[in-house]
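Form 7-S
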Amino acid sequence: MIEVIEVSPRDGLQNESVLLPTAAKVELIARAVAAGARRVEAVSFVRPDAVPAMADAETVMAGVERRPGVSYIGLVLNRRGFERAVAAGVDEVNVVVPVTETFSRRNQNAGAEDLMRMAEDVAARAVDAGMPCSVTFAVAFGCPFEGEVDPRRVVALAVRAARAGAGEVALADTIGVGVPAQVRSLVGAVREALAGVADPALRMHFHNTRNTGYANAVAAVDLGVTRLDASIGGIGGCPFAPRATGNIATEDLVYLLERSGLRTSLDLEQLVDTARFLGEALGRPVPALLPRAGGFPSPVPA
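Output:
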């Protein structure tokens, strides 16, 4: 079973020029859950002036339906964000730490080491609160400002996150520059380092900016990774990364996985319907291909 973590309500919407009303965000989350999503990155607790699309995080959390077996994730960037997430009733938190100094300062207005210490603090607090915590390392495959990233840096940070109590470590190709050979190398190095420290789950977050996101996802699955982020419609990107485009699309990923004989919890037809809903809400077609092409074999003759 491949667990697909749905990130369209957060990483998807944060980079859109159209700000959806709270009711539409709640409906998007409800549709994702109805389609079979069991972990949904629903909101982020950041400054409204920095990311206006996430200004209503508490209101969104107040509006989502609580269902057994469904976990709502809140992204946090600091201790204050963690406190807001706990008060809003998220089920788990995800802390983002950029790997490079320049991206850290552009994205979060703080140094990379300061942000890593913050992540360690939040992970420890989450452990004390009995709340699952993941740490996502942004620009782990390449930085728009500094270029190539030393994998040893990523490995060292992953070890620190595990030691601090993170139950999950995510490697993010924030700007979509990675290729399968890089995935194989980095996943292998991180796994080897973590084996002697702790046993956090490994999760991957790919963008399809240069059309390598799905190939990278297959490479990760071939290595035994069972947790992948994806965004319905393929929307999203990072507002602080130049020319960043969307995440890999949930429906396109599910088609790829299931046609390859791998199971997910997701219903393809409902995902496609939700992508169409999202496109109408945003006022433009979504980047994903399945809403245009349909699955195969098609349940309805063309």
